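Retro notes (design track)

What went well: tokenization of the new backbones is finally stable.
What didn't: we kept losing track of which sequence belonged to which structure.
Fix going forward: every design gets posted as structure first, then sequence, in one message. First example under the new rule, 236 residues:
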């Protein structure tokens, strides 16, 4: 009797795990982009987690872009097939080329601050839904653009320094006191925030004892969350 029950239970167990398997994964939920006066590209690539080739269908399902951004000839979203410009905001699905087994599908947004009027400053987003079979995932591209006269920070905090680098248990960060740095966050290479610290003055000592070893980015931000400078370091 016990053997019969086991044989019934086993297919149910495997059937459950199969139906919940993800066909692909996105590298991160949200990519944050600080606009500059040149073409900026920001990747959020998709990984095929199956053992065969797949095509990923995707569409923009929400955005709050101002019209001058939409009209810019240098705004677009690209997959491994094509780059699409303002027509991509129509909400119609597009389909990628084949993504090989366990391979990456390049997926990025591109926009140039040089071609966008400074009247439309602030934080905006484009939200994308990606699907294959029963797998549905979302990706958000968040853009921040500020008028040049708002920011005294235009040295991009050139005086920022990190030490020691590589670091072990502590990381020292120094910066210009006048820049108004209020928080510092550590991000991994796929753009996920690992830890965030409240800071002030012109320096901070960050406890990174619980941060896993690897390569990271340090982002210095003002009291609105605007990224003012980014630096790279290695935690041993």
């Amino acid at each position: 009797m016990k053997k019969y029950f086991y044989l019934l239970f086993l297919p149910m167990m495997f059937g459950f795990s199969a139906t919940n398997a993800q066909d692909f994964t996105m590298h991160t939920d949200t990519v944050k982009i600080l606009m500059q006066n040149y073409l900026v590209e920001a990747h959020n690539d998709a990984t095929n987690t199956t053992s065969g080739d797949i095509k990923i269908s995707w569409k923009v399902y929400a955005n709050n872009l101002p019209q001058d951004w939409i009209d810019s000839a240098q705004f677009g979203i690209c997959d491994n097939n094509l780059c699409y410009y303002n027509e991509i905001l129509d909400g119609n699905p597009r389909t990628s080329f084949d993504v090989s087994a366990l391979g990456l599908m390049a997926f990025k947004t591109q926009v140039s601050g040089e071609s966008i009027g400074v009247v439309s400053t602030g934080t905006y987003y484009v939200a994308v839904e990606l699907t294959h079979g029963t797998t549905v995932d979302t990706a958000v591209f968040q853009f921040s653009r500020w008028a040049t006269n708002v920011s005294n920070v235009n040295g991009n905090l050139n005086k920022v320094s990190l030490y020691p680098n590589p670091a072990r248990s502590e990381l020292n960060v120094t910066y210009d006191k006048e820049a108004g740095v209020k928080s510092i966050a550590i991000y991994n290479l796929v753009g996920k925030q690992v830890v965030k610290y409240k800071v002030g003055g012109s320096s901070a000592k960050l406890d990174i004892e619980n941060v896993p070893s690897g390569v990271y980015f340090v982002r210095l931000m003002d009291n609105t969350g605007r990224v003012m400078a980014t630096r790279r370091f290695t935690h041993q």
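Added context from the reviewer: Residues 25 and 187 are 19 Å apart (CA to CA).
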